[in-house]
Amino acid sequence: MLRRHWTRPLALVFLLGLLAPLPPSAAAAAPATVPETTASPPAAPDTATTVPLPSLSATTTQVAHGLRRPTALAAPDDGTGRLFITEKPGTVRVYHPDTGLAGTPLIDITSAVDESGNERGLLGIALPPDFAESQDVYLAYTALPDGAVTLARYRLDESRLEVLLAQEHAEYSNHNGGQLAFGPDGHLYWSIGDGGGSADPLRAGQRLDTLLGKILRIDVGRTCGALAYCVPADNPFAGTAGARPEIWLYGLRNPWRFSFDRADGSMWIGDVGQGRWEEVDHLAPGRGGANLGWSCYEGLERFEGGTCPPGEEYTKPVFTYSPYTGGCSVIGGHVYRGSRYAGLVGGTYIATDYCSSTVWALRPDGRGGYEQAEIGQMPTQVTSIGTTAEGEFYVVNDLPGGLHKVSFERQEPTCRVDRAVRSWGTGTTVELTVTNTGTTAVNGWTLEFPLALGQTVVSDWNTDLTQLSNTVTAVNAPYNATIAPGASITLGYVAGHTGDASAPPRFMLNGDACAIGR
Question: Could you confirm whether the keyword Signal appears in this record (predicted)?
Answer without folding.
Answer: yes
